[in-house]
Amino acid sequence: MLKLSSLEAKIMNNYSGTQFDKSKGDAGLSEVEELIRQTLEDSKKLEKPANQPAAPVSEPPKDDFKATVLPSQPAKPKPAAPIAPQQIVKPQEKSAPTSYEATFKEYQIGDIVQGKVLKVDQSGVLVDIKYKADGLILNEELSDHPGSSQSLKPGETIYCLIENLENKEGYVVLSQKKADFERKWKVAAEAYRNRTVLEAKVLQALKGGLVVDSDGLRGFVPASQVGKSGEETLESFAGKTIPVKVIDVNRRQGKIVMSHKLAAGDKDKLVASKLFEELEVGQVRKGKVANLKQFGAFVDLGGVEGLIHLSELSWKRVKHPSELLKTGDEIEVLVIGVDKVNRKVSLGLKELQADPWANAAELYKPGQVIKAKVLRFAKFGAFVELEHGLEGLIHLSELSKEHIKTPDEAIKIGDTVDVKVLRVIPEEQKIGLSIKALLVEKDKQALKEAAATADNKKVTIADMVADKERAKAEKEAELAEEGEEEQAPIE
């Protein structure tokens, strides 16, 4: 019996699962022993230090291994000779990119990039995408929206999808059509997720709804989602631009469903919100009178309503806005206040008109006598209308020479009266007037005239006695004549 060492026993254990044909007998056993011997020799070689040169090994005759078949355990490969230290080559360090190379971007196939059109010809479109090579779009890869290569011009910015980073000619192969396709679904998904209101043009009106296009994004608006008013038909929407919202996106089926009805209300809110953010004090805006109230007029600025207070309608006092405006009037107004917290807008109308008070001091001087029309009464007096769009006040104490308690004791609304200018204060928009001053002056003038007449007529006492005697004699003569007529006989 062959005695095995510990290493031999270990090796035998490794080959314990190997099946041999018993019919071979001792010949098969000798082959196994020979294989073990060769394996031990190879192991001893590997155990030697790396710095010692390996002894030459004579290869066994090839014929000895012809009959050896080990299906479950392949032969171990011969170890490669160690590499000498001087043969190891260190990888060359990559040099830092130049400032020009640093401007290039790194792209991958499938990226959607933005580029500038450099050249357009029959073969396609050359595009600068900020890469080490220019991009090329073949005619068949141009987008259906906006159209063919004739619609593109040098300098125009477009989006493209990278199909190949380098072709045989060294160009980056691009596709505008695929970029638009990917962007379309991306825009649709974002619009659906954010409930964005889009502007879409109605391309076709069908029985079941509307086919629309929103900047290349095609969708379908079912008839139930079309916001119609009254007897409005689907055909009436053809060619119009309407607000829509994406309510369903199905890329697998290639369907984008939109709603006009949901977007109509949101659009008004969106427009109003945008307009409100644009409003600033000092702007002049066009609007339409929406409503009249006792305290002022509401004006629609295009989604946002502002108020013109009664005091801001005109430089002259107005009792009701209907004196100047009516519902539906289109007017220009001045933005005089914007409250972004409470979302209120204050407007002015008189500020866009010439300020009559600017020249009031030149038009009217104290002591001047003018005509005025009585407009309204107050506890303290009466307001009157003057020329040039100005108003004045006749204080209660200036309405009459006598003491009165109310203005209507002296004048009536609608009367045209003569008044005297007492004072003009443009900065306070005040003109003080008086009727009493004119009455007093008239009385003084009458007294002066009477005094002047008395001075012109100097009468003596003798004249007065003679006049008295003459009047007495005339009276006695008249009485005598009456007596003679009474005594005359009746015939």
Description of the molecule:
Helices cover about 25% and strands about 30% of the residues. The protein has about 500 residues and is of the alpha+beta class. It has five domains: about 5-65, no CATH class; about 105-180, Beta Barrel (OB fold (Dihydrolipoamide Acetyltransferase, E2P)), CATH 2.40.50.140; about 195-270, Nucleic acid-binding proteins (OB fold (Dihydrolipoamide Acetyltransferase, E2P), Beta Barrel); about 280-350, Beta Barrel (OB fold (Dihydrolipoamide Acetyltransferase, E2P)), CATH 2.40.50; about 360-440, OB fold (Dihydrolipoamide Acetyltransferase, E2P) (Beta Barrel). The strands form four sheets. The protein has a five-stranded mixed barrel. The longest helix has 27 residues, at about 460-485. The radius of gyration is 57 Å and the shape is rod-shaped. About 20% of the residues are buried.
